[in-house]
Amino acid sequence: xxxxxxxxxxxxxxxxxxxxxxxxxxxxxxxxxxxxxxxxxxxxxxxxxxxxxxxxxxxxxxxxxxxxxxxxxxxxxxxxxxxxxxxxxxxxxxxxxxxxxxxxxxxxxxxxxxxxxxxxxxxxxxxxxxxxxxxxxxxxxxxxxxxxxxxxxxxxxxxxxxxxxxxxxxxxxxxxxxxxxxxxxxxxxxxxxxxxxxxxxxxxxxxxxxxxxxxxxxxxxxxxxxxxxxxxxxxxxxxxxxxxxxxxxxxxxxxxxxxxxxxxxxxxxxxxxxxxxxxxxxxxxxxxxxxxxxxxxxxxxxxxxxxxxxxxxxxxxxxxxxxxxxxxxxxxxxxxxxxxxxxxxxxxxxxxxxxxxxxxxxxxxxxxxxxxxxxxxxxxxxxxxxxxxxxxxxxxxxxxxxxxxxxxxxxxxxxxxxxxxxxxxxxxxxxxxxxxxxxxxxxxxxxxxxxxxxxxxxxxxxxxxxxxxxxxxxxxxxxxxxxxxxxxxxxxxxxxxxxxxxxxxxxxxxxxxxxxxxxxxxxxxxxxxxxxxxxxxxxxxxxxxxxxxxxxxxxxxxxxxxxxxxxxxxxxxxxxxxxxxxxxxxxxxxxxxxxxxxxxxxxxxxxxxxxxxxxxxxxxxxxxxxxxxxxxxxxxxxxxxxxxxxx
Length: 647
Description:
Strand content: 35-45%
Strand order of the largest sheet: 37-38-41-40-39-42-43
Helix content: under 10%
CATH class of one domain: Mainly Beta
Mean pLDDT: 84
Distance between the termini: 43 Å
Low-confidence stretches: 406-417, 513-534, 544-549
Radius of gyration: 26 Å
Number of helices: 3
Shape: globular
CATH topology of one domain: Lipocalin
CATH architecture of one domain: Beta Barrel
Largest sheet: 7 strands, antiparallel
């Protein structure tokens, strides 16, 4: 779901009416208009004589989307454009809006459903990063095995896993992690060279903007007793790609004195490498090999480990930790389960609150042995079990915070940049599913979606229908929750009990058209009747509100950081969403961009927008005193001449 809950991508079995694709697995995009959701089926026409079952079921699948869901990256085992590989060979294709389909590259044979490689598109849809066993450029000719990492940008291919001079770093390939191995902008790519090539696994960062490559796993330990070289595993990065995490048994810094696996943090802007997980000589615990949950903003990170990791700890079992500027601390003792390989833990953008599921009994009121949902507050250092209510909470029913089959997780190691949320950006509203009845209104003994808010739980899906409701994620602000069910909940659901996707919107959405109306939702008179007759969730309790003045986009101040080649603009943003900026001058009737950058506004108000110097900006740094700064958010823009000192 797009962050402002106006656009949703969904998957279904069988092509819907109007779909150009006849595959058994299909996809669509729904856009929320003023009178209803307008659906656009995704797919491309093709002819196939294949007898392989999975090629018939899913010869093509969307594997990644841009941030606004308008640019789609497809994988197809059937040719979709002239010059594409023959049937049975998989290729990647890009389509932006209603524009033409573009062939990105052939990526090898096999089935789309089980293609074991990475492929992702940047947030603006302009850059695609993928790894493939195919040799697509002459510079890749020395690779004898494994995959090479490529980037497609503005119609041109380039090798990613190369050194500063453009030579491949490995003869046995490289891999990109699906844990934000590609930054949202597409400019930063983290990739690993396997131990089979150089003896130990190593992690690199390729900056596609300036063409540099850095080994971020290189040891900084200068003690005479630093331990032996060991493999380093990439454990994740934040969405912007400004911070990355790695795990290793090697002592990479002087303050790491134990021989167990520890977690390290690498800051891209400064190149600083720091130990996160402790590292005392007496520590006998170890961090999990490659499991970290970094906050999107700030320096907070959650990670899992086992044993005595910090001084004074006890217990040898699985544990959850959080680390920030104050160092690491224990959150809870107990294992965090996985669903389709994903750990059931989510957090707010700043990591101040985390939602996770565990079977461990973490509070006195938890007396069952089933999975429960917990909410952790890193500021207050409190832990709350949220999967309990006036009618239950300790029955023999498990709790989950993910859907049964997340989109784009068909064993395809994609780089999809659309996170799956069950907790809102404030951390005060969280969602989970359970078959247990937690409130009197839940009478169906089926799986239902629950909402937790301000200490209370309530149904987000109807609990009186004789069908289960499968959770399908929420918008980032938590105002909309998606679920699928076979129940008929609105008059225009006339497919005879087939599974449909519904959006429950905080405060109500739009009224449905009259039952039996023989027209679409855009042309029919709309009914004024309520859509559902059920108890509202607790977050619909009346809240006091005061009228606010209409906000506008404003530039507050500008500060230059020459050593980091960054200019920081402090902006007052009127709305959530993408904020972009550029510093430029005009010379000889040409516009020269000196610095550019983008960020996501999570909450309206004061926002820092970092602008990184371009090559032209670095060349023009000395002697430059003034330039024009232009900042845009949606249709709003502000442009002002500012004083700058770049060098």
